[in-house]
Every structure is written in C-alpha cells, then in structure tokens.
Amino acid sequence: MARKNRSVKKTGGGLKFWGRHAIAAALANPSRNIKKISGTRDAVASLNLPADISVVYCDVADLGRMIPRDAPHQGLVADLDPLPDIWLGDMLDQAAETGRPILVLDQVTDPHNVGAILRSAAAFDAAAIVTQDRHAPPESGTVAKAASGALEIVPWVRVVNLSRALDEIADASYWRIGLDGEGDQFLSTAMGNSKLALVMGAEGEGLRQNVAAHCDTIARLPMSEQMESLNVSNAAAIALYAEYTRKQEN
C-alpha cells in the first residue's frame, strides 16, 4: 500500500505535559522521549522513573508558572518531545488485521474535545483517530491532560487532505459512515458488517460537503427531540460504543 498523507508536526521543538495520568502514560510509552520531570518530592516519588531522566524538584508555585494558568498539574510537569509521525498507510495495514474502527475528525479544533475523543477511542478499542493537519489542535499538554493517558495509546494520524485520506481508507475496505443530525438512517442500521470508519464533523458546522461526499453513507444517532445535537466528543463516544458492542455481540 502506498505511503501517503504523512503528518507534518507543528508543535516546535518540545512539549510540556502536566498531571499524573498524562505523565505516567508518557513514561510507559517506549515511543516517547522524556527529557525532564519537574515536580514536588511527594509527586515525583509516586512515579517509577528511569535513572536516565533528569529530575528537578520544585514547589507548587514554580510548577504553576511553567504551564498555562490554572492547569491542574498535580505536582508534576514533564518536558518531552512530540511523538513520531504516523503514516496513514502503515496504520491501515495494522488495523486491517484486527478490523478495529477508525475515527476521522473533520475540523474538530478544540483540544479538550480531541483529548476526550482519544480517551473514548482507547476505551472502545479504536485503531486510530485521523485528522487534517491544518484543522486540528497540535499535540499538547491540554490534549494529553484531557485524554488522561490515551494520547500514548491511540495512534493519531495527521494528513494533508482528508478527502484523499478517506479514499485511501476505502481502498483498505472500510465502510465510511459520516455522522450528521440530518442523516436519513440511524447509525445502527448503517453499520452493516464491514470494518468501519466513523467520520465526525465539528460542532455547529458539521461535516464539510467535500468530506461528506467521500463517505459511503450519512447516518445519525437516535436522540430525543428535546436536544438538537450533542457535543462532538459525546457523539464520538456513543458511536464508538455502538461499534464496540456490535463487535462484542458478533
């Protein structure tokens, strides 16, 4: 399979993560290069640190000045490098062996939403999330904190062109379902028996027309008329749960 749609990182030379879950997960990820841990003595003592990682002991006020204001650092801040780029084709080769679903995000730019989606993707055994490089947040401490460790577990593939990526996903025998409140069938009906790529649009704007045109079908989640829509991270969790239970029942 051709290797195209590679990510182009825009995160600069280094990142800062904060919080115990995000940092413990980064320490457990062999693909992550951690350069320094800063923290209180009690918080650092709670980690199983390799001997080659630099440790700087700080008080709470010093840690608060290293990261965004009011970020819940829990006594720990890590300096680390972004994860290596992931080729879409490589991810598809690996996912094809398991049939696990792929989640494609169209212009979902809020880092808290992307972090929450990563957490749901880990919980419901998704193979990866795929985003367009220009219309998604960079890897960051905010994403890592919201993901609660899932950033280190779920591959995040960034592509230049989402429509071309959807074509490549179709070539790998995935059934592409766009989620939209105006879909003419429910997700449960649209799923069929194929491997699934679930395509989610941003809140408000929804799926762009060209992205929707590269889906095999458009479906909606069953919902009470009392609410018009759901937050995209909530909708993603429900869609992934529906696919996860479908596989468990088969």
From TrEMBL:
InterPro entries: Alpha/beta_knot_MTases, Ribosomal_eL30-like_sf, rRNA_MeTrfase_TrmH, SpoU_MeTrfase, SpoU_subst-bd, tRNA_m1G_MTases_N. SMART domains: SpoU_sub_bind. It holds the Pfam family SpoU_sub_bind. Keywords: Methyltransferase, Transferase. One of its GO terms (cellular component) is cytosol. Residues 16-86 form the RNA 2-O ribose methyltransferase substrate binding domain. GO terms for molecular function: RNA binding; RNA methyltransferase activity. One of its GO terms (biological process) is methylation. It comes from the Bacteria. NCBIfam families: rRNA_methyl_3. This is 23S rRNA (Guanosine2251-2'-O)-methyltransferase.
